[in-house]
What we know:
Elements: H1 11-21, H2 26-70, H3 75-79, H4 85-92, H5 106-122, H6 124-128, E1 136-142, E2 146-156, E3 168-178, E4 186-187, E5 190-191
Antiparallel strand pairs: 1-2, 2-3, 4-5
Amino acid sequence: MGLAIKVTKSRATQVISRFITEERGSLSILILSLFMTILITLLILTDISSIYFAKRSLTQATEAAAQRGVRNLDLEKYYKSKYNFTKMILNMTDAREKDPGIPIDCYKGRDDAFSTIAEFSRNRESLLGPQLGEIQIQEVQCDGYQLSLRTSATARLPFVIPFTGIEKVEISSQVGTFDERKITTNYYGINIG
Length: 193
């Protein structure tokens, strides 16, 4: 003799299965899921644009510091044997030296770059915006003709990215700059052009 077991569904199981198979209200679930997708996408796009603007502000501050640092002329290198008769004759021929650029006083340039970054950090809210944290100089390189800076800062996100918990992003910027002479037809104070 076989034993027959009859399985009866509980009331809760019957309600859930009826809800899943029933089509009434399915459009509202679809609209709600679409709305949530659009909302999460807007939050993520807002965070991405906030990071972009923070990166742009950091790059502009780094460029300003590098430009301010490169303006320090090394007078000794600049005027070293530039105005003698032999140099004038060589510069008029093809045997002239190639112009490497305008020499920079690296120590003064480094100090000016640090003071510019410190000024940006002090006035951070008004100059860079509320999303950018304190700027830190990671590296300064100067070879006598070019000044390079690498900076970093922390950008605060306006919205915490859903399901990740990310509140801040570390950004960095690297800028190099140099001065070059303007091409002129004025040689040793004599305008020939």
